[in-house]
Amino acid sequence: MPLQPGDRVALLVPGSRTYVDAVLSLLADGVFPIPLDPRLTSYERERILGNLEPALVVTEPDELAALASTGPTGALPLGRPIHVTSGTTGTPKGVFSGLLAPGDAAALVAEERDLWGFTDTDVNLVLSPLYHSAPLRFAMGTLLAGGRITGFDGDGNQAGFDPGAVTAVIVRERPTTMFCVPAHLQRLFAHWDEHGQPDLGSFRLVAHAGAACPEPLKRRVIEAFPAGSTWEFYGSTEGQFTACRSEEWLERPGTVGRARPGRTLQVDPDGQIWCTVPAYARFSYVNDPGKTAAAWRETASGPAFTVGDLGRIDDDGYLWLDGRREDLIITGGVNVYPAEVESTLAAHPGVLDVAVYGVPDARWGQRVVASVVGTATADELDAFARERLAPPKRPKEYRALDVLPRTLTGKVRRRELASE
């Protein structure tokens, strides 16, 4: 049966040029792609897709070509892809923008183009997997402006991040834009320290997000790339909050910037950040009206949403983050929620109790660690996790304990574990 407006299509294939074309083509028809990590285990796939109810699940790259030719050429996307995020409960949630009217669809595209300056001369270097929202958004914005994307192999497919290969693309293709996470920048600079830094003069935009950027790294990025080209932004799968030129950051080290155009930021008495957005940027959680209602509230500036992050705003409107959502681990720019990993490991017969948390890591920002009470060995748990969890979610270290530290109300003291 042909796909109809409002249908959902799960994409469980590696990234490629065709992948972006297929996403744009589906959205132009009012069909909503669900970009997912193709490395998800069958357990994870069933858990996510059971709630999202896709009309089609794409698991073979050859299937993308047919999808890429369905939409009208050059037509505007009538919404955003349904990216999946996990809440602090570990339950996967699909973030849905709804089917947009033509005017709102045009406004959605114009907002990104006006902020990032996408043009038909842009060459966007794709570094992160395209099932993540930010790299896909930058690639789509570039193509919609008439530019092109690069960073793929000879067959147009996305490979794993390799600093040497990225350097070769910079030299050969002279990209003008790229989105990256701090882990990418750390690995690139380490490679360039050993092999020499390429000419970076072609870049007009280098945007980073996804994890906190250490100050020494941030300053090196500013020095290495052309003046005025580097930005940081703060956002989530649900929506974008701020954008910050590095020149602003230098005046206020640590800030993540002011509200993006068309948005306002507020912090409630508990320090929780709320953001009002235009109508075309609103969202709901698929099949979860309760979580949707909890994410939104009415303010004097209009409906505002929160993802539970904490922060403070100075008198000039600049935002500082005081903490991410409770217990969230950000490893290499990927969000990992302890509750999901814990519930998976707890199913092992040799596990009596388990707590998962992040510890600082020079390469990844944080690495996932599990403290376990029980008889299961580290090797047994690693094998168990490999069958059930995608690579970023698998603990890199297992620590055996006799008992987990808990509060009087039974909550695990994760910070205490992480500091040991």
Give a structural overview.
β8, α7 (182-195) and β9 (205-208) form a beta-alpha-beta unit. With 420 residues, the chain is an alpha/beta fold. It folds into 2 domains: 8-323, Rossmann fold, CATH 3.40.50.12780; 329-418, ANL, C-terminal domain (GMP Synthetase, Chain A, domain 3, 2-Layer Sandwich), CATH 3.30.300.30. It is 31% helix and 25% strand.
How would you describe this structure in keywords?
single chain; 420 residues; alpha/beta; Rossmann fold; GMP Synthetase, Chain A, domain 3; 2 domains; 7-stranded mixed sheet; 24 strands; 31% helix; globular
In terms of topology, how is this protein built?
Layout: E1 8-11, H1 17-28, E2 32-35, H2 42-52, E3 56-58, H3 62-68, E4 83-86, E5 92-96, H4 102-116, E6 123-125, H5 133-144, E7 148-150, H6 163-173, E8 177-180, H7 182-195, E9 205-208, H8 215-224, E10 230-235, E11 240-245, H9 246-251, E12 258-259, E13 264-267, E14 273-276, E15 284-285, H10 289-295, E16 296-299, E17 302-305, E18 310-313, E19 319-323, E20 329-331, E21 334-336, H11 338-345, E22 351-361, E23 365-374, H12 378-388, E24 397-400, H13 414-418
Parallel strand pairs: 1-2, 1-3, 6-7, 6-8, 8-9, 9-10, 23-24
Antiparallel strand pairs: 4-5, 5-15, 10-11, 11-12, 13-14, 14-17, 16-17, 18-19, 20-21, 22-23
Helix pairs in contact: 1-3, 6-7
